[in-house]
Protein: Tetratricopeptide repeat protein 30
Organism: Geodia barretti
Amino acid sequence: MAHLRIQEGQYTQRIYGLIKEQNYGEVVQILNYELQSHPKSRAALSLLGFCYYRLQDFQAAADCYEQLVQLHPDVHDYQFYYSQCLYKACMFPEATKASCQLEHEEYQTKVLKLQAAIKYAEDDLPNAKTLVEQCPSDDPDTEFNMACILFKEKRFTEAVAKFNTVLQVMGYRADTCYCLALCHYQLKQYAASLKYISEVIERGIRDHPELSVGMQTEGVDIRSVGNSSVLHGTQLVETFNLRAAIEYQLKNFDAAQDALTDMPPRAEEELDPVTLHNIALMNMDQNPTNGFEKLQFLLQQVPCPPETFANLLLLYIKHDYYDLAADVLAENSHLTFKCLSTYLYDFIDTKITQQTSPDEAFQKLDVLATHLTERLRKLTKHVQEHRKNHDEEAVKRCVEEYDEALENYVPVLMAQARIYWDREDYSQVEKIFRKSVEFCNEHDVWKLNVAHVLFMQEVKFKEAIGFYEAIVKKNHTNVLSKS
């Protein structure tokens, strides 16, 4: 951002020295003091807006530029910066309105990009695409933005191709590498994703040793590096969060924890929503109270990671806080269709219903279970057909869909079993499990719960031992392989 020179005075040299050293916080203090005496100082307001932007305090930056727009309506830069800050502050309608007021030809492309970004953030992908298509085709940002739209449309393979084109044309860019890692993650191609993640982290460590990557994990007591524009440009925070997500998916929980502590250190109040969300999840077993507080806080913020709503509800149910889950569901009805799949909403609603009307809940669960078993049978048939046709790609896709459907089916099954378990009707629980043996006989959660219900019937100790023994042997092997 371009800014006019501040008026000559006793602080001038010091201010520019602090900006050069990126001590934006100290500059903000000095300028706010100066503005008490000269509230309409163009130079002070301009530099203050710049510093707030660098500190990622976009609301405060927008306030500065709004004053400058009013004081100097002929300076088009201020109008654009004002629009940009409103967008960064997630004030999308206001940002759109402000950008529409900037009609100067010189800013046409910039405004188109900004308006496309706003529509993208609002999930208005058709209009975002229309705006991007109006941008110059030879601008690398155009290709990058089209790739982002493809990603949000869940056309991940096509997005990978476009991001690779950007990488070939522009050379290394941290944001492009991170986006490629994210696409491969969505495609469950974790090795490819980790390759790009490693590149971003290695570049970040080499180019910015001052960001203290990995120092927290090594136990070194270091101060926060803050939320600087340098940190944002490295994509290190996003990349470490993605690494944590991959390790978590692979059930490497210690490695997932390390990924979160390896990222550049910041104070808790400086953490971005995604990092705060992931820290809450990773530490739920050790400190659920703190985890719930973080997730409740995040749910009130804009922006909020879309996973927060579902995870908070599921964790309340896991910890038997059904009344709290019901309250959150009722208070955030606007998030229901945006953040919950039909399956997840039905499951959560049924678990809440189960507390007051178990029989009604069982019937609802039975409808869910029937739908899922039909899907599992269809997918089994599709896998067999694709194998006959030697279509390995289709086989892989169907197997992944089968695994996902199975992971949805098991909680429904366990919820049905829980209703009769609470009544100590263990023979009925066993019947429920036997009906599901077609799909679940290799699933560890299913085997463990079958063992429990056989054990509780006393006369079936031998059968229970067989299930327990298989689980113990498997986990003993896992422990040996990791040692």
